[in-house]
Write a structure and sequence with these properties.
Layout (H helix, E strand, L loop, with lengths): L4 H9 L5 E5 L2 E5 L9 E5 H8 L5 H18 L2
Antiparallel strand pairs: 1-2, 1-3
Helix pairs in contact: 1-3
Amino acid sequence: MKVTAADLQALLEAGDGARLVLQEGRLEVLPAGEAPGGALTVIERDALRQRAGDQPGEHELDEQAAILSTEIDTLGA
C-alpha cells in the first residue's frame, strides 16, 4: 500500500485527533472520535506533526509517506 504526500496533507488538515487508517485495502482519514473499527491505524495527526513538523513541505511529506509505505509493506498489509 502506497501512502502519498496528499494522504498526509489530508491528515494534517483534518484537525486534532485525526488518524490515517488502512481499511479494506484503502487508506482513509478518520476524524477525532470516529472509531477505526477493524482498521489499522497507520499514523495519528499528532505523531505526524512530531515527525515532520507543524507545517511540513512537500519534501518532508514525501519522505514520511515513503517511510510509512515501507512500514505497511513490512507488516504485509
